[in-house]
Amino acid sequence: MSNQWKIVDHSNISGMIVIEGPAFRLVICAQATNITFSDYLRIMADARLIAAAPEMYEALQMFLAYNDQGGPLHFDTDTMWAKARSVVAKIEGGEA
Questions:
Q1: DSSP secondary structure string, 13-34?
Q2: Residue 92 has pLDDT above 80, yes or no
Q3: Which pTM was predicted?
Q4: Element (H or E) spanning 7, and its range?
């Protein structure tokens, strides 16, 4: 298992999504009798946001450090922006 959280299963079981992290798995279950495709898309968007939360926290820490350390002269801005782009891609369903 890696240090990152990721969606590992969103199989045919209606409304159930498994998110795997470094120490455990989180199962999200949206119980409803008639889950629509629109509901499924919303549930998946929520799952991607949950899976990206630790990386979002790291990215925010980088931005705060950037501010606290005096800006671009004292900080690796390429890494900071790459991390932010990676998190946004993960949230939007792309490859992180």
A1: STTEEEEE-SS-EEEEE---SS
A2: yes
A3: 0.62
A4: strand 6-9
Task: Label residues 9-29 b or e (16+ Cβ within 10 Å = b).
Answer: ebeeeeeebbbbbeeeeeebe
Give the total number of structural domains in the chain: 1
Q: Which amino acid is at 77?
A: T
Q: Are 18 and 50 in contact (CB under 8 A)?
A: no
Report residue 9 as tokens: 């299963």
Residue 1 domain-assigned?
no
How does pLDDT run across 18-76, given as a tens digit for each residue?
Answer: 788 777 777 777 666 677 788 778 878 888 888 888 888 988 888 888 878 777 666 77
CA neighbours closer than 13 Å in the CB half-sphere of residue 87: 18
